[in-house]
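Page 47, continued from p. 46.
Same chain as before, 287 aa.
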Amino acid sequence: MGYIFAALASATAYGVADLAGGLAARRMSVLTVALIANIIAALVLSVVAAASADLLLSRSDLGDAVIAGLAMSIAGVLLYRALAIGPMSVAAPITAVTAIAIPVVYGVLRGDSLSMVQLGAIIVAAIAIILSSDDGVKGNKNATSNRWNMVLIAVAAGIAIAVFYIYFERLSDVAGLWPLAIARYASLTSLFVIVGSSILLGRLSLHNFASRQIWMPAAAGAADAAAILFYFEAVRHGPIALVVTLASLYPVVTVALAVVFLKETPTKRQWAGAGAALLAILVLANS
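Result:
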């Protein structure tokens, strides 16, 4: 049961990170947001790892952590871009559904046993995410074209997140929490290369990092670090298919926060999505 609460805590933290990161990406460049968020997350994870355990990494753990980190950097840039160009209540759910599907298939192919009740709850959770993606806006042709661009970017972000989920699950128990910090530094390395190249090419200005809104990507990074810690705890004690499903319910949190802070009005389908998410959580918690 403990892994269920950890996975739900991860979903809550991811929802907060999405809101803060998405708002920041509307005020400054996506690369700036991703870099600042990753720096803060790396610092948080390093402190936690240093305080919790010694560094006991095998070559396999190191390789998995680096791959997870690179996937994380790609996912972060793509997700913040999707959140910036489209409604948060649409981009986040699309990414989440994609991020659920791949690890679930991976877990089943690997031999994880799921009851029919659990499989049904996973399907209900996916439906809940899809329902919560309805923002009630039909838009014009230009908006529709922009929406499809957002959808493709959100799907790509979901694939990268799925890779991150899978490679973190592969880490050995003796590795402690250091793989989380190492993964984040691998992510930071790739982002520094991208940001540095953008500055040299004149596509990004250093003034972006002096914005008064810098607290938003910083908050996103702190929340993201918390989400990763909760996810890592959950996946070490529960099957990846169920853990990823629960952790991927973060769009419900994002939508709820958007309603409270952005005054977005939820549609009937979004209310139904919230109800379906609650049903899935209750079924998985008691299965």
